[in-house]
Amino acid sequence: MGLQRWVLREQPELPPGSSPQGERDWGEGEGGSANIPALPDVTTLDWDALQQRVAQCQHCGELATTRTQTVFGVGNHQAEWMLIGEAPGGEEDQQGEPFVGPAGQLLNAMLAAVGLQRQQVYIANVLKCRPPNNRDPHVDEVAACLPYLHRQIALIQPKIILLVGRVAAQQMLGSDANLGKLRGQVHHYHDRIPMVVTYHPAYLLRKPSEKRKSWDDLCLARAQLDPS
Ligand code: URA
User: Fold this and answer.
1) What does the pLDDT read at residue 134?
2) In angstroms, what is the span from residue 38 Cα to ligand 1's centroid?
């Protein structure tokens, strides 16, 4: 087990200013408001019904027309670990699965470093659709989409939630503090499920010097399951 194992050796050449495989960088702003009404209740849906509801979702008109497909989430429905990212990027939009681009490969390596296979955990995003051109999501797109994620959490009942990146952290913690302030401590979902914040792997690809802190975050998360 070691930090070296996190290194993604083959990184694509990127034109200046672009992000790997269409992965967003999540600047500080979250974009404008699209004025989207609340979703119909999803709190009683089972996995199949929820997945179907997401696949057919037209709620955020723009996202529904620009996406290739929705990206529901992937993994073990009985997972102890649930990872929550931000939104699908280009590759995820094409494949219909979260974290399959270079950031996803790094995420897999990070999981492996704490002894986890990707198939053991459940991975989802705050937003189920790719924002066009990887723009930041609008505030009400996030608000409209969050009930799907809350239902996923309720169905899984994970023992630990890892919030991956600033947007997931801020949305799930209801905070506008920066990521540096939110990581390094244990938060709780509904006063019950521990949540730990870590850097987004797309950020770590650009700033490998921060991997050490991310390793600390994973250890903090793991310690919530095995406090010995
Ligand atoms: N970044 C995310 O936050 N989620 C993905 O699924 C892919 C990239």
Assistant:
1) 87
2) 24
